[in-house]
Amino acid sequence: MNHPLLGQAGERHLLLGNEAIVRGALEAGVNMVACYPGTPSSEVPDTLNKLRACQRFTLEYSVNEKVALEVGGGAALAGALTLVTMKHVGVNVAADPLLTMTYTGLPGGLVLLSADDPGCHASQNEQDNRYYARFASMPCFEPANPQEAKDMTKAALLLARETQQPVLLRTTTRINHMRGPVTFGPLGEPAPIVPFSRNVRRFVPVPATARARHPMLLQHMEDMRVIAEKSPFNTTAGNAKVGVIASGVSRAYLHDVLMAHGWEGKVRVLELGMTWPLPEQKIELFMRSVHALLVLEEGEPLVEAELRCLAQKQGLPLAIHGKHDPLTRLGEYSTTKIAEALGAILDEKVENACGLHCEELPQRPPNLCAGCAHRSAFYAVRQIFGDDAMYSSDIGCYTLGVLPPLSGADFAFCMGSSISSGSGFAHVSGKPVVAFIGDSTFFHSGLTGLANAVFNRHNLLVVILDNGTTAMTGHQPNPGVSAEVLGEQAAHLDIEAIVKSMGVARVEKVRGYNQKALQRTLEELKGQNGVRVLLVEEPCVLFARRTLKKARTQVAFVAEQGEAAEKCLATFACQAFCKNAEGVAVDEELCAGCMVCMQLSPAFKARKRGTE
């Protein structure tokens, strides 16, 4: 097949960081890739999915991150060079097998891509997964641009194969989604499979085995420290007496700051690309050469703390500057923040070059798409339960139901938590609880919560919002996707049959756009006790148009201005609604033709798209 990422050595392409990771994996000869999609990592497996036809590797969309790492771990045990991808919070799900895999080792080699999200662009927290490198005893690479994303992915995979130990590739949203020039290396052939040799004392970590493996893991990290000392990704430049040690995307910001302000000759810089274990000898020599040091790292002060310990242990009398205004533990860094921090040490005045602050820009909160059936479901639930019920939400497009006027979320923890946390809340409070969960999230980690609710006889209504795809992260497949769409790639699992097989006594299925059926069924379920499940089926409006090729030919319009139209605008708040000189209107370009508004208000009518 002819694809830019399969180009020849020496070619130069403009790539996303995620695309560069794919090229690096191909250059290393990756055999197996397992993933659970999640922003900002999703484009890595999605790009590999487009390259399936080259038959260089196997790709699996797993049902959750723990399963992905276990599949990847099994493949690496069998000798495959393996890449497992997920977003940062997914590593929490995968942590159980991860901390054992570092004890046993994996002969084929495995790299775990953790895509962190400082600033919470698309996540419920901004945890710093460099902690996992330390916690699990894994070498860690942190690219600062797409070229390094490619090079470090290849280096990490080759190191994992050489040492038979897992390696962490830690990126952030800016790295995953930035675009830059990437020069290709040789593509080569897929890596040979390493034959598996039975070794119960290594691969079955009963307590006696684990105790014996732990010292080996600690020695492995000491060996990695020697590699870090010589790593080409840890470099020094400059001869000044003010030093900067930078890691991650902060290195890219630093380069911009030095160039913009003409400070290249005023600082000495140590860039850390392999950030764990730290090259302590190189760092000590660097710190002895400067009298003041600025540490640049987004997130937690991990490197800073290590440097302060090293300076104290070696008796180094230098001032170390790190996590202090404007360089905090919150959100992302920027060239402005780094310029202010470095300027203060250099005694250089820094002007605000752009003169514009983000808070001055108009804000556009994320919202459900026009025609999204989730909006219809939330509206119906609110009509029947109102403020009498508590709403347990989950992670997916439907989390956006928290926004008024739908107000369909009172609490949420993590993927798959809505049923479990809703059960606990209902048990203690005695209040009616409606738990919302999507189809992909149900397979990810909702099954166990539902089993627990049935087993412990909890009392709640579970609304499974089945839009037929993993919508929020880019329409990746999940076990509930229709068999026609999956083809031979995977097998379809029926949610209704699964729920019934788990012992749920009352299971109802309704189309998402059918308000009359929705409200009637919800009213019936409201009067019952125990675990009840309402399965709301309607394809994601974008998925229906792009993949299922189902385009609606009608659009809504406001036939009569007045109180009825204003009420629908205020209570349903479809993205296609707007206000003009005449009053309420429907933007035909945005209208998806779901016609739910016509069911809610006589002020709305339908007409053929493109007609007046």
Please describe what this structure looks like:
The chain has 612 residues and is of the alpha/beta class. It folds into four domains: 4-230, Rossmann fold (3-Layer(aba) Sandwich), CATH 3.40.50.970; 234-354, 3-Layer(aba) Sandwich (Rossmann fold), CATH 3.40.50; 373-546, Thiamin diphosphate (ThDP)-binding fold, Pyr/PP domains (Rossmann fold); 554-608. The chain has 22 helices and 23 strands. The strands form six sheets. Strands 3-2-4-5-7-6-12 form a seven-stranded mixed β-sheet, sandwiched between helices. Strands 9-11-10-13-14 form a five-stranded mixed β-sheet, with helices on both faces. Helix 10 crosses helix 13 (335-346) and helix 14 (373-385) crosses helix 19. The longest helix has 24 residues, at 207-230. The chain is globular. The two termini are 47 Å apart. The model has no long low-confidence stretch (mean pLDDT 94).
Could you give a quick summary of the protein structure above?
The chain is of the alpha/beta class and 612 residues long. The chain is built from 22 helices and 23 strands. The strands form 6 sheets. Strands 3-2-4-5-7-6-12 form a 7-stranded mixed β-sheet, sandwiched between helices.
